[in-house]
Amino acid sequence: MHRTPGDHPHDPRQEHRSGRRGLLRHSRFLGRGRSARRTGEGRPVARLQWRASFLTGLVAVVGLCAYPTVKYLDVLNDTGEPMSFSRALPDGVPGPVRASAADPTVRMPTGPQAVFRTTATLGDGTKIGVTTLHGKKSGFTGKVWVWAPKEYYEDRYRNSAFPVLIALPGSYGHPANYWAATGHKLQQTVSDLAALGRSRPFLVVMPVLNPDRHYYDGSDIPGQPKMGTWMSDDVPDLVKANFRTFTSRDGWAFMGSSSGGFVALKQVLQHPDRFKAVIASGPDIRPDSPLWRGHRAEMRANDPERLARRLAARPGAPDVYVQFQIGTKEGGRANLERFMERYAKGPVHARLHVIEDGGHNARSYLRGMRDASLEAVSRVLLGPTPAP
Question: What DSSP string describes 174-219?
Answer without folding.
Answer: -S--GGGSGGG-HHHHHHHHHHTTSS--PEEEEE-S-SSSS--TTS
